[in-house]
Amino acid sequence: MKRRSMLYGGVAAAAGLAGAGVAWWKIQPHQLAPEQGHADHDAGADSFWSLSFDTPDGKSLAMSSFRGKPLLVNFWATWCPPCIEELPLLDSFYKTNKAKNWRVLGLAVDQPSAVLKWLQAKPLGFAVGMAGLSGTDLSKSLGNLSGSLPFTVVFDASGQLLHRKTGKVSPEDLAQWVRT
Fold it and tell me: What is the model's pLDDT at position 15?
């Protein structure tokens, strides 16, 4: 009986360690997959910084133009109620912190026509790029394993991924991120 209890205890401990290991792996930033056909880009943040997106009005927006400054990137969509609810907070954050070199980029996982219509009704002060459906894969490569919206990441001025959050950001999140 004692031997069986020890065996069960050992199995339970191994399962607990395995679960903790999986949880630790899930919360770690994951490297971006290298761009196909671009062998000169290595995996990781360099791939992210080499991307460019169209704006809702059809202009090009290069991620490299955001390098050298802290950057908050928010994945959102017009059909996502929590996304729409947090956009005024992100806009206020941008307006308050742009003098401190902070930049905000909204990457819309949506149709350009829907985003353009929404922005005409409720303009934002920060840049918006069209990530389209591939935005889900991009957000997953940045640690959004569920592919949920909204999803936010924060990079420091050197391009290092510092923070990420699935779900709506809070004023407390933003205050903490500015301090780091």
Answer: 44
Query: Can you tell me which residue has the tokens 């996304």?
Result: 83
Structure tokens at 159: 């391009």
Q: What's the CA gap between 20 and 117, in Å, rounded?
A: 45
**Cα-Cα end-to-end distance for the chain:** 54
How many other CB atoms sit within 10 Å of the CB of residue 156?
Answer: 14
The strand pairing partners of 76, in sequence order, are 108
Is 60 in contact with 54 (CB distance < 8 Å)? Answer: yes
| Number of Cβ within a 10 Å radius of residue 67 | 15
Q: Which residues pair with 161 in a beta bridge?
A: 155
Q: How far is CA 114 from CA 108, 111, 164, in A?
A: 10, 5, 26
3-state secondary structure of 164: strand
Closest CA to 87 of 50, 126, 117, 29: 126
pLDDT in tens, 145-168: 999 999 999 999 999 999 999 999
Is the confidence at residue 10, as pLDDT, over 90? no
pLDDT digits (tens, 9 = 90+) for 88-125: 999 999 999 999 999 999 999 999 999 999 999 999 99
Q: State which amino acid sits at residue 49.
A: W
